[in-house]
Amino acid sequence: MPAKILFVDDDPNILAGFERQLRKTFTVETALGGEQGLIAVSGKGPFSVIVSDLRMPGMDGIQFLSRVKEAAPDSVRIMLSGNADLHAAIDAVNDGHIFRFLTKPCEPQTLSNALAAGIRQYQLICAERELLEKTLRGSIKVLIGILELTNPEAFGRAARITRLVKKIARAMQEPNLWQIETAAALSHIGCVILPEEALKKLYRGEELTGEEAQLFAMHPSIASDLLSYIPRMETVAKIIIGQEKSFDGSDSEENEEILPGSRILKAVLDYDSIRASNVPDGEALQIMASRAGRYDPNVLAALQMVLGIEPGYEKMGISIDGLKDGMILDADLYLLDGRMLAAKGYRVNLILRERMKNFITKPGIMEPIRVLVPSAMAKESSRNAR
Asked: Consecutive sets of 10 residues in the chain, 386 residues long: mean pLDDT of each?
């Protein structure tokens, strides 16, 4: 498919000329003035290259391309001017971050060459972004996989809290949902320094020794340091390092910013710790509400709402053969020799089911397996059993 080019000018004759000249080579869209140009960018994009006249009434080319930079940062921007105005060119480069500055009248070959160069630049930008996104997703999967293998307790808790964090962030309409969800999933990466037994004590609601508590207090900063080596993870690292900070800042340094994601993570982590002692939901929320200044009131309100509208799950005890993807472990899964295979909160997937095959006969797996089954799946199973 030919590359899409947008031309913006206040002269309809000039726009018609561009369309006639270039329609055989490119997919050309035109817009009469800056306001119409912004409408085209939002409604007809993405465009590989956006070409704007400099001198237009109302919104000039510099203002228009500056707005384009915010709305469509990947699109390559080219400026056309009826005169070689040096100051205008400097402003266009500084404010609009343009790729080329061309003067009218512009030779067809010069314009075609500039457009071809702009398209190549756009393709390079998109390829680099795609590579970075794939690298980022791969790095996150590797880190989560390492945690799963080295510390199932920490992995199970991270998986459990991530679902609740995601629901709260959505209920609060947080704009940085991806960063918040990723921070929750990686919130316990720093726990690789902790003995597994210490984490078991913590998650059972038992008191840690002084040394264990000191090590646990270090895990957010360790996770943050690890993530600092990965591009585009700066916000995630900041959320994680603030996950144990109180809302009122009483345990933070002066002027230290506590991000919304950190406030959500703090509340969910503490809620999960309280529930580990078999405290009911309502009582857990009352305990949290009594801790003045520790939690963002908006987060607590969202937590209460989310717990009340939790999607339907049915608690069931099933055999190994009945285990299906999408079910959630409602209790730690143990082998008959006492080793833990997966922690409560783990979402059943192909990897877990394949791992279980290695232990079915020896040493064996404790049954029935306690799981949360999505209501729709449970109803389907009931119909099939009839």
From this structure: 88 92 90 93 92 90 89 91 65 68 85 92 89 83 85 86 92 88 92 80 79 87 87 89 89 80 95 84 85 89 76 79 86 89 85 87 89 72 52
**Rounded Cα–Cα distance for residues 168 and 176 (Å):** 12
Burial of 318 (C-beta count, 10 Å sphere; 0-12/13-18/19+): middle
pTM: 0.59
10 close to 36: Cβ distance less than 8 angstroms: no
Tokens of 165: 């964090």
Token duo for residue 198: 């210490």
Query: 144 and 137 in contact (C-beta within 8 Å)?
Result: no
Cβ contact 81:60 at 8 Å:
no
What is the set of domains in the chain, with CATH numbers? Answer: 4-127 (3.40.50.2300), 151-310 (1.10.3210.10), 312-386 (no CATH)
Per-residue model confidence as pLDDT tens digits over 41-91: 998 989 999 999 988 998 988 889 989 988 898 999 998 887 656 666 666
List CB contacts of 281: < 8 A, sequence separation 6 or more: 275, 307
Q: Could you give phi then psi for residue 50, rounded to 5 degrees?
A: -125, 120
- Strand stretches in the chain, DSSP E: 4-9, 27-32, 49-53, 76-81, 100-103, 313-318, 328-329, 333-334, 340-342, 369-374
Compute φ and ψ for 333, nearest 5 degrees. Answer: -100, 120
